[in-house]
Fold each of these.
Amino acid sequence: MGPLDEWDRSLVAALNLVLSTQFPMFLTWGDNNHLFYNDAYEALLSGRKNCLGRPFHAVFPEAVDQVEPLMQQALKGDSVYLEDYKIPLRRDGELADTWWSFCYSPILAETGDIKGVLGVVHETTGRVITERALWSSAAALRRVTDQSPALMWRCEPDGTLHWINERLATYAAIQTPSSRHWEDIVHPEDRAESYDIQAAPSRPNRDFATLMATIAGIWSGPSS
């Protein structure tokens, strides 16, 4: 890179921008993609030492296959933006899947040539893992409820159906529950009491056991 007073002024300006922000940012410069970053980005290095100024591929060798093509795209003048992009990273000695949302943008030298890449990054691993766990739990719940002989559903506060189990879908011949209201599948003679039951969970100090017993009696099926 040479003496600091000989650095390209565009590099210095970009580096000052990176260092002045509290959001994780880095930049690479030169043919070897020398890595520079701010304090917020350093927290994402997972204990890697002596990274400043080293080639990007030497700092993250396990991520080269996923990241290098994107950096090359930025070096050709095309900015890159991706959300929840999976990148394998070595953390605590173990290779693990991580997910990131980021933008890579080209940095122009004083000559007008593209000489570096500016990266703005945000790790989304925690959210992605949590969402996948929730989807897995929801799928497991759906499998259990679909095997139940009871008629089951979940609705919005206004009564619009959000979800029904397979038994109810078959019983009431419903294919798109989101376009229906729960009262559509309750016998007219049961609707007055059903409205009371539907509102019961929002009432304070309602005995849960009594509530569930009442619901079980009402929702065992429409009146004949």
Amino acid sequence: ENRPSLDFAAYRLSCLYVKTGKDLKRAMDFAQQAWLQDSTNFLYKGLFGVIYYHKNDFKNAKMYLEQAVESQQGYLDKDAAVNHYYLGLVYRELRLSVESKKQFKEYLQRAPQGEYAQTVMKLMK
């Protein structure tokens, strides 16, 4: 039996809300639904960090994204590259340029043709 993954559906819905930037509260609600179903998933944990980044709450963004990046080590999941991208942005906001560049490099290694690859290359110049 191939049941749909409700946690992943909630994750994708949350991502859409983040991308449109229209309703970060709804994005957080869907992220929490995903995380409650699977609290070990680094994509879901990273999504909290992404949402906090968009709320300009860099302290919480840093905490969640660092945890996500730590727990995704050893996985070659290219979707996880987004956690490196956003952690790089958070470090940039916090004026931690060495750490920021390290995260951007990791993003490019994981997703050289990724959604944010062009942006990352510009930011690293």
Amino acid sequence: MLCLTLTTLALTCLECPQPGAECRAPSAEIRIGIVKGTLGSFASTILTSHQTAFELITPKVPGDSLANYGLIVIDNLFRLQDINGAAFKTYVENGGVLLVLNPKADGFSRTWAPYDIFIGEYTIEARINNRKHPLFSGFPDDKVTDLADSNGPFVGNCSFAEPGKEWTILARHSKKKKNAVILEAGFGRGHLILACTRFDNYNAKPTATRLGDNLFNYAVGLAKARNR
């Protein structure tokens, strides 16, 4: 048995009957599923650093199987047109928490989204809208920057344009101020969090570490509240 600890990601004990077998958390804890493409997973890096269990799942997973997960992460330049959009929308409506990280602009689709949202240009720096939000606990100012490096520091490969009024914008593009970088919304009994943020610098830069930890603590907390 492997006992996993750290911060508010909570204590989780897993029993793995044999190598390669599916590891399940006890019923009192939530299951976390990750949908990732070929470019790796920021979610798996962050969760592994906290020894928190997760499972890799297929984007075409049947809708009834999604209900087994308290939190699902669609991660790192994944083409959203490749998921079973209707099933993921129903998953949220029925109480699931969906976290979309740094989606790919090419192949962006809104079939999973209950409200209007469009993809925008990449983000070098973002500005926080509400410093009191749990995502920004411990931030010294209103800047989100230096989450990754490619010919200089930047935040993410996208932003979100023309979000519907149902979304709450948590951080904005520093230049295209109408574009959101992080936003959230409730839908039915569930919750969505969208973030055009990379985490290449997780464990290397304070802002990336702090935001990554806060983001997953917040998402896991929402999922646990809905799983009671």
